[in-house]
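[worker-b] picked up task from shared queue
[worker-b] task type: protein-ligand structure
[worker-b] ligand name resolved to zinc ion; SMILES cross-checked against name lookup, match
[worker-b] sequence length check passed
[worker-b] input payload:
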Amino acid sequence: MDIYHDYIKTILKNNPIHAYLISHNPILDNKQNDIFISQFIKSIICNNHEAFCNNCANCNKINKNIHPDIHYINSDIDNKKISIDSIRNIISLTYIKPNESFSNIFCIQYCEEMSDFAYNSFLKTLENPNKDNIFILITKNKKLLSQTILSRVMDISIPNYNDPSTLNNCDLNIKNIELLIKNIIQKDIISIYSFFYTFPKNNLSSFLNYLLVFISTIKFQNDIKISNKDILLISKIYKDLSNLIIHSLELLNHNINHNILISYIVSKTDNIIKNF
Ligand SMILES: [Zn+2]
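[worker-b] inference finished, payload out:
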């Protein structure tokens, strides 16, 4: 079940940063979302630096749930909130050097459940990153998080690879998406239109997932040949496009006719880019 390997590798292509926000994919069940999260954590500290290998000491300890540098923070069972005491406990651990890997990893599930006190206390820690600590915030509802948190994390969506075989046949690569983004920047509606229509229909789900991945990571990629000014523009339309893609994936999951869906995506994309 290593379907996320390449995706995670793309995200972590540049060295790990100090905080990530992973949003649950509502189409997937908790178990599938957890598989992604566990693979992501392994990829950060795997000894082989190739996403995760499932073989090294770090990967093995994560698989057995006994890695001393990985700390999970959950909400209290009684009031379903993450308490100030839990947050104080992690803050104290951030001053301790990691035992076996290069970094402590704090995985906060689900960060929207922090009490107000816990939240304020945690923000201070998040605002003062240090190289010994990486925070992974998990959320089931990103809308409940403040802009202050969102601006300090790299936002990651969990893709839905329901059918890995279509993914293998997919000749989609970063260049195609780069081209699409350039068309969007240039407001080249005709090219956007033809792009969606020429894309193999049985791969629409993979395509949308890749597009989502690309849009989520674009701000953090150094080697994409898009100017800083254009990246600013893309950041502005990022939110609308991500919402559109997530909604389209949901529609796709409800067996909507692909041509109707493509027309919908094109017209919505058209609206989004006209308005920025
Ligand atoms: Zn490994």
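[worker-b] attaching auto-annotations
[worker-b] DSSP finds twelve helices and five strands in the chain.
[worker-b] releasing lock
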